[in-house]
Amino acid sequence: MGEQTTPGLDLAIGHLRSGRPAETAAICRARLAADPADFEAWHLLGVARTMLGETRPAIEALTRAVELRPDHAEANRNLGALLAQGKRFGEAIPHLEVAHQAAPDSREAIIYLARALRESGQPERSAGFLEPYLASHPQDAEAWYQLALALAGIHRPAEAIGAAQRALAIKPDHVEAERALAGIHFNERDYAAAIAAWRRVAALRPRDPESHRGLAKTLAVDGHMEEADAALGRVLSLAPDWGTEIRRATLLRPLMRSLADIDETRRRYGDRLAALAQRHPQLRDPNVEVADCVAFYLAYHGRDDLPLQRQLAALYLDACPALGSEAPHLRDWRPRSRPRIGVVSTNLNAHTVGFVTLGLLQQFDRSRFELVLLRTAPPSPSATQAKFSACADQDITLPSNLAEARARIAAAQCDLLYYPDIGMAPLTYFLLFARLAPVQVVGWGHPDTTGIPNADYWMSSAVWEPAEADDHYTERLVRLAAPPIHYEPRVWNPPARSRAELGLPETGRLYLCPMSLFKIHPGYDPLLRRILQEDPEGWLLFASGHSVNWDEVLKQRVAAGDERLARRILFLPRYEIADFTALGPVVDCQLDPIYFGGGRTSLDIFHTGAPIVTWPGPFMRSRITSGFYRRMGVTELVARGHEDYVALALRTAKDDDFREAMRRRIRERAGALYKTVGAVREVEDFFAAAIAAAGNGQPSITWNPPAATPP
Fold first, then answer.
1. Can you tell me the distance from the alpha carbon of 202 to that of 579, in angstroms, rounded to the nearest whole number?
2. Are 509 and 535 in contact (CB under 8 A)?
3. pLDDT tens sequence across 269-307
4. Looking at the structure, do residues 513 and 460 belong to the same domain, yes or no?
5. In angstroms, how far is CA 317 from the centroid of its own chain?
6. Phi, psi of 693 (to 5 degrees)
7. 428 and 350 assigned to the same domain
8. Is beta strand 509-513 parallel, antiparallel or unpaired with respect to 589-591?
9. Is 347 among the domain residues?
10. What pLDDT does residue 4 have?
11. Same structural domain for residues 148 and 258?
12. CB of 679 within 8 A of CB of 480?
């Protein structure tokens, strides 16, 4: 114990050292019965109960000891360590700081303090304790591991990787350092390195299902689906569970290899769901057990997703009937005179969904409606976050637990819930299954039907939807006259940039397709190949994908084995918004992918006059840019078919007069897309009508937009 003790405590210490903590505890309790202020007895009792695994009584005993001797280093260290082990990091920190101040070289105090600081959101302070310690103790593998985590938390990934590698050089079987290395590589999108690290974790812990689960996730993100399937099979052989069964059944490749691959993938997806349904899986909390939006990539196949989405939703409802619960207040609900609108999203921040939703909410008539933000992710300080908060009457962060989040939304007692981005985050997806408001509306943030019975309306626009679009949704389709947005370009006047400044080829014609690579459908490949073949001086520019593997897969798919074409396919880094808008005047033609085109990307660059060639396909997600052209009254760059698409792209790039005429017309007409207050008023009118209909007992309404398109 480090101090002179009474003979009775000497005997207690002897028992402790001999591995008999129960005898130690008995002696301490007897002494404390006689003297409740005996610091040594409280301290030793806490240590003994820690050894016995009696965590709560141990914390109580050590707390009493520290109350008697607040500056005692060892008692504070023991209490802080025990609190940290129980993940009570905020409580642990003051005690570990006392221990560290009294004994700056105490390894245990530094390790626990560094962890507690990092876990409580102070990674910079954590690194500040570890770095000087490691300067004098460079062979401490655990300290290097803790430093790796702290450095990753303050966005110093290269140094974090180096620290994890130092830990592994000292202790090659340090499995947690290997996991940390895999996680850091994953976050940096170096999936090849992450996969290698996860393989080493699995070799170190072959019987640990989480090792194979981490490997499977990384393999799937990088597109190695057969290996991901095998890794999930190993998880199931070690620890069978329904959530993993569902994830395995619904694996989807991010970049499809061919049209045949799409057909086979969708057939397998449906067959596996049907087979699972026959086994009647049971889920308590699918947000935890499945923890994924397993249908996300379906939208990029260019097919009708309604049957598969409906099949998936039915499986979830059968597996977890509580998903379809109803909020108690709805039994005697009546519409308010000032309806309360709740907006449920993970992305009310600087995200594509946030950017296209913010203006709509800012322009809502607050005298007519009450707005409640229901975030599934806590806001972080930023100008965008502040703008969201300013436009709402209430700004609520939901718990991460599904049942608690449902209860919190129900407690808000909204008249209408708007879900702008179903399919992008598992929690919002599973929340929509419940009836938490009389009216529940889905938006276009992820443009695909949900298949969920309690989703009432899918809010879209007449300029986006084909005539037969009602058949594409399980929800009632609402065709507003104008797109339901109020958008302002984030950079109105982009700075002039040369090709060299933007890292582009200085000669030749530039065809830019700046979308996420999973939007590039295999059916689009022949069109892109034709453009390169018919313009030997042309360069095809993509935005670099999630990984080197994605870039290479797409390049080889488009080039189809022609290395001369492959050399003219380039992948650009992700630009900041100012540099992205500066591309508009520099590239010769921008290409909107067929089957799934641009939305916010087009809005961010149309005002520069960028000529975007597009083709309105069979589903709304391929018709957004053409809908913007309809709003502008510009039709020359809207292709009538695939052949026409190629011809328009080549003409735009090669014919300087045509291209410049298009730039002028687009610049002149682009104002029709921005700050569209009339569109906001129509959304308000639809919301009010839907609420009134629900109040009158109508299950849904058919929205007939005004004949005149509002500005």
1. 42
2. yes
3. 999 999 999 999 999 999 999 988 889 999 999 999 999
4. no
5. 24
6. -65, -45
7. yes
8. parallel
9. yes
10. 46
11. no
12. yes
Is 699 contained in some domain?
no
Distance CA(180)–CA(212), nearest Å, equals 15
Matching residue, tokens 């690579």? 517
Segment 40-86, tens digit of pLDDT:
999 999 999 999 999 999 999 999 999 999 999 999 999 999 999 99
What's the whole-model pTM score? 0.90
- 696 belongs to a structural domain: no
**Is position 695 within any domain?**
no
Q: Are 520 and 554 in contact (CB under 8 A)?
A: yes
Listed residue (390, 391, 409, 389) closest to 399, CA to CA:
409
Q: Say how many Å lie between the first and final Cα of the chain, rounded.
A: 79
Angle at the Cα of 388 from the Cα atoms of 383 and 391, rounded to 5 degrees: 125
The helix (H) or strand (E) run that includes residue 229 is helix 225-238
Give the number of other CB atoms < 10 A from CB of residue 64: 21
SS3 344: strand
Instruction: Kindly write down the DSSP assignment for every residue of 61-107, as one continuous string.
Output: HHHHHHHH-TT-HHHHHHHHHHHHHTT-HHHHHHHHHHHHHH-TT-H
Note the maximum CA span of the chain: 101
The CATH number given to whatever domain includes residue 383 is 3.40.50.11380
How high is the pLDDT of residue 641?
96
The side-by-side arrangement of strands in the sheet containing 457-461 is 394-397, 370-375, 340-345, 416-419, 439-442, 457-461, 476-480
The total of structural domains in the chain comes to 4
In whole angstroms, what is the distance from residue 464 CA to residue 440 CA? 21
What CATH number should be reported for the domain holding residue 611? 3.40.50.2000
- The dihedral of CA 633, 636, 637, 641: what is its sign? positive
**Would you call 467 exposed, middle or buried from its count of C-beta atoms within 10 A (0-12, 13-18, 19+)?**
exposed
Which segments in the chain show pLDDT lower than 50?
1-5, 708-711
What's the chain's length in residues? 711
Of residues 380, 382, 394, the one with CA closest to residue 340? 394
Last residue of a domain, one of 322, 353, 385: 322
Residues 252 and 312 in one domain: yes
Which CATH number covers residue 50? 1.25.40.10
Q: Dihedral sign for Cα 111, 113, 114, 116, please.
A: positive
Give the range of the structural domain holding residue 581, as residue numbers without chain letter: 509-673
Same domain as 428, residue 545: no
